[in-house]
Amino acid sequence: MRCRFRRLNYILLLSIYLFLFYQIYNINPILRNSQSPFTLIHYQNNTYRILSSSFTYNYRGSYLNFAYFNVEQRNRVLYIDFLYDIPVSSQWQPDGHLYPIQIAQYGLSHWSRLEQNLKNQQNKIYKFERLQPKENNHCSSWHTIKDEISLSNTYVHFTITPNSSLHFHFLNNNIQLVYSTKTIHDLETLTKKIIPLKGSPRQVNRHMLIDIEKLMRKTLFFRHDFIKIQICGDTQSSVDQLIIGNQTLYDQQAFYSATRWLLNNQDLQTGCWFIHVQRNYAHHTHYHLRNPWCSAMAQGQAASLLVRLSSLTNNNEHLLAIRRAIQPLWSSNLTRAYFKNRFLWLEEYPLELATKGLFVLNGCLYALIGIIDANTIDYQPYLSELINQIIISLQHILPYYIHPNISSWSLYDLSHITMRSKLNTASYSYHLAHITLLQCLRQIFKKINDSVSQLFDFYIQRFTSAIL
Ligand SMILES: *[C@@H]1O[C@H](CO)[C@@H](O)[C@H](O)[C@H]1NC(C)=O
Ligand SMILES: *[C@@H]1O[C@H](CO)[C@@H](O)[C@H](O)[C@H]1NC(C)=O
Ligand SMILES: *[C@@H]1O[C@H](CO)[C@@H](O)[C@H](O)[C@H]1NC(C)=O
Ligand SMILES: *[C@@H]1O[C@H](CO)[C@@H](O)[C@H](O)[C@H]1NC(C)=O
Ligand SMILES: *[C@@H]1O[C@H](CO)[C@@H](O)[C@H](O)[C@H]1NC(C)=O
Ligand SMILES: *[C@@H]1O[C@H](CO)[C@@H](O)[C@H](O)[C@H]1NC(C)=O
């Protein structure tokens, strides 16, 4: 009797112990991954990343979790521009436009990947010094790469002369991809796709897989392939320094392409990268965005990108571009709205009616990080003042982003208050973006002002409790 009782006790204790052990191990993935700067979240076939306690933010380092963004692969990217090698957005304008937020994100993701590449082993790289056609108006013979290569590694880099075309034949997929600086008489067919390179002679930096899939509007069936290469043109034609598979080089050049476009397309007077797409917000036909509009999020992310450029170059022109980028955030109402006529907010989508606001949460937080980055390398009292004002606003406004009906979930904006529309619940990915942004700010303020850091911590705890 006693003996059996003891055994029962033992089993009971063991079960409690196992139960606790299981709980500790399962509840807290942050503990498990304490080495990695990111905590992985698996949800519906996708892997997302929020920040972990070992993530540290600085103005030269990775930008949040953007190393894991693949901007060019997004559906909203129509294709990669043929002159600037930057993404063309189809958002709100199906035939495409250059959207500064997307371009800044493209630059920031490639910058962040450079840091990642240092840790990961690079793939095999193939090089051809110089390719030329055999005779006038003819093609070279085919150059073959012996290995079967992964299409995810088809980063290609070369310099090409005018009136030339460089042909890549993908054998398994039976696709021919042509980069051409000729006036094109060739016909595209189902298996032949042509990229009309502009601005020749020039250096080209492309990801062939993206080019093919964007042009064909479908994903390729074979993910590994054999490649043959050929150049066509007159006797002057040549392709120099053809490199296939150097991801670091691709990321570097993509970073520079984004910064180059931003530096060349900033409105010098206002500092804005104006967006000329006509747009209503969501279903509000009577609330138009300003036209053209200046987005606080674009200004902030572009500033964060140019701060990283400036950390490499120390070029005064780049510093001036950063000052101009931040200018519309503090010196005018171009990107502002006031909550309850009192609390300053930086608008991702400023409305025509200056008295109305949308208060998109992620846009304002990205803008804030841009201001902090700028103020770190180029301290200005008026920027510190602006940062304080936004913190005070967040103290008052953050409570309104807690979803009234879904426990510990967040709202995307406050249009239900300012425009009496229905609740704009954050999607899963925006809810995670809110957490990531707040985690980044918590970390930044940890050293500066602990009470501000605790403010962010409160919402991080709350919002993560809904997903972990
Ligand atoms: C996840 O992937 C499986 C298999 O590909 C698919 O059947 C399922 O619909 C996907 N689930 C979601 C939520 O996308
Ligand atoms: C390219 O070809 C066209 C037509 O043959 C010719 O007029 C032009 O001069 C060529 N350009 C260069 C840079 O060779
Ligand atoms: C790849 O490109 C980077 C950047 O230009 C360069 O530093 C590196 O040496 C290249 N790797 C190889 C294996 O050529
Ligand atoms: C912005 O608008 C607010 C509120 O309408 C006003 O008090 C302020 O003077 C304006 N600021 C600038 C720089 O125009
Ligand atoms: C939220 O809950 C309130 C009260 O329970 C209800 O009246 C309202 O319709 C709900 N809103 C949504 C968007 O579900
Ligand atoms: C921290 O920030 C809060 C809110 O902006 C402010 O009231 C407080 O004075 C700051 N504390 C320090 C030590 O700067």
Automatic annotation (TrEMBL):
<dbReference type="GO" id="GO:0047464">
    <property type="term" value="F:heparosan-N-sulfate-glucuronate 5-epimerase activity"/>
</dbReference>
<feature type="domain" description="D-glucuronyl C5-epimerase C-terminal">
    <location>
        <begin position="267"/>
        <end position="447"/>
    </location>
</feature>
<dbReference type="GO" id="GO:0030210">
    <property type="term" value="P:heparin proteoglycan biosynthetic process"/>
</dbReference>
<dbReference type="InterPro" id="IPR039721">
    <property type="entry name" value="C5-epimerase"/>
</dbReference>
<keyword id="KW-0472">Membrane</keyword>
<feature type="transmembrane region" description="Helical">
    <location>
        <begin position="7"/>
        <end position="25"/>
    </location>
</feature>
<dbReference type="Pfam" id="PF06662">
    <property type="entry name" value="C5-epim_C"/>
</dbReference>
<dbReference type="InterPro" id="IPR010598">
    <property type="entry name" value="C5-epim_C"/>
</dbReference>
<keyword id="KW-0812">Transmembrane</keyword>
<dbReference type="GO" id="GO:0015012">
    <property type="term" value="P:heparan sulfate proteoglycan biosynthetic process"/>
</dbReference>
<protein>
    <recommendedName>
        <fullName>D-glucuronyl C5-epimerase C-terminal domain-containing protein</fullName>
    </recommendedName>
</protein>
<keyword id="KW-1133">Transmembrane helix</keyword>
